[in-house]
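Purpose: get a first structural picture of the assembly so the mutagenesis plan has something to point at.
Setup: two entries, given in the order below. No constraints added.
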Amino acid sequence: MTVQPPTAGPEAGPDQRGAFSSRRVFILAAIGSAVGLGNIWRFPYVTYENGGGAFIIPYLVALLTAGLPFLLFDYAIGHRFRGSAPLSFRRMRRTGEVLGWWQVGICAVIAVYYAVIIAWALRYTLFSVDKAWGADPNAFFFEDYLQVAAEPAIGFDLVPGVLVPLVIVWGATLMVMVLGVQKGIGATAVIFMPLLVIAFTVLVVRALLLPGAADGLNALFTPDWSALADTAVWAAAFGQIFFSLSVGFGIMITYASYVDLRTDMTGSGLVVGFSNSGFEVLAGIGVFAALGFMAQASGVGVDEVATDGLGLAFIAFPVIISEAPAGAFIGVLFFGCLVLAGFTSLVSVIEVVISGVRDKLDLSRTAASLAVGVPAALLSILLFATTTGVPILDTADHFINRFGILLVAVVAVLVVTWVYRELPELRGHLNATASVTLGRWWMLLVGVIIPAVLVVILVREARATLESPYGGYPAWLINTIGWGSAIGVAVLAVVLTVLPWNSRTSLEPPPELHDKRTDEHVPEEQR
Amino acid sequence: MTGPALAMMMLAILVVWGGLALAILNLVRYKGDEPDQVRRDL
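Result (structure tokens, whole complex):
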């Protein structure tokens, strides 16, 4: 059946913005955004470090009381106001636009450095075939492959081994973005997500069959109940859920704006949230089974090999691949999964920027994709395909996550709840088509509990960052790249807010599908 | 695997994957007025 959905305004209807062709495509795209590198290389170690099996309890509490409610908050904004993050907030209130541009700026920064990690993973997929790292994966990664400079600096000595896969990643990203919401983003998710689940499941099964796998799982899941009394463990659980679900920085607002107004968003949100956590648990099992093998093969305890992030992916796993039977197979699967998971997340991050620019300037899909994607790709190459890229990436990632994403999330929920007092309308909007209706408890969670928890996490992070220089990096790097990027996106947001909208973009809130005063459908001709 | 570790792993799997199964079931059984397919892309 072909259906024309209600339009947001006479000049800026969804047909001009693009849309997902069905709820299934939207759910896969949203899962593709949520499931990223952090699910694979962050969750297992956070669990291990914060009470092992006992961490599952605060993790589930965080999922149910913060992750899913925040996800639905983002969905409600995008689905109700039918626009990119800036346009949705602008339609909510005139002063809200700055929040949307703040989120756009954060996504622009993330996209620029996130792409290079996917490029490394792409190259390592090939390295896995002949185990090119030899006997010392650590030296190979930093010295032979990345050719990291001795001191942190901003230089432009390109590294061909990084440059080539990075160009491929950006080329593929631009192609997806030009193809549009359904044929690009949607089609990518429909192909990549099932492929990711199958490949990762095979990887986990292979890891479980390795000798020592049980030791790794014991290390991961043996509960330390005393951890439950530690507020840092609860902060880690809420932080993991928050960062993992891709909430609070415009992605879910943007994706929800591409969904038909009659779609059940609460039911869809539950599927996305539990899928993301389901993948994390799967990743935890696979990663620690492999680390258990590595520990046994090295004759050390799991605590001596357990790590996260780049160390896990590009140093620990190459060791596992070198020592395990059929290691090349494991390597191709592992790094292939990183590429798949990372790429669908990168696409979602850059879409936030493209969508904002499209709405503001009323550009065509192709023009907006190129206007955003080409400069982002060039900056990404200039900064990160070089011998000085790693410290810059590490610093930007640390600061933009904490003092970008966390901060804008706190400000957005507080403003929408207590200044705009918009939560009742958002709840009504979601409930109009909901399979799982939201009570007043949802407003309590979004308006009180979530900001309170995020403020606690933010204060902890700020204190840790101010106490000692992050990563031992020099002050100039922390001030320019770290604080500079976090503060810069906020300043840029103000500047972009001042710029006028294209006259063809409607800034009026679109009509509701259901008129809640009478609880009747709005007639087709009035939509 | 030790008993406590096995129990916590099973708990995590049951709650998270069970939650996913229930969420999918809810979505499949819900009869809203959502169209099966909407057209378009630009």
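Chain B touches chain A at residues 1-2, 4-9, 11-13, 15-17, 19-20, 23-24, 26-27, 30, 32-42 (CB under 8 Å).
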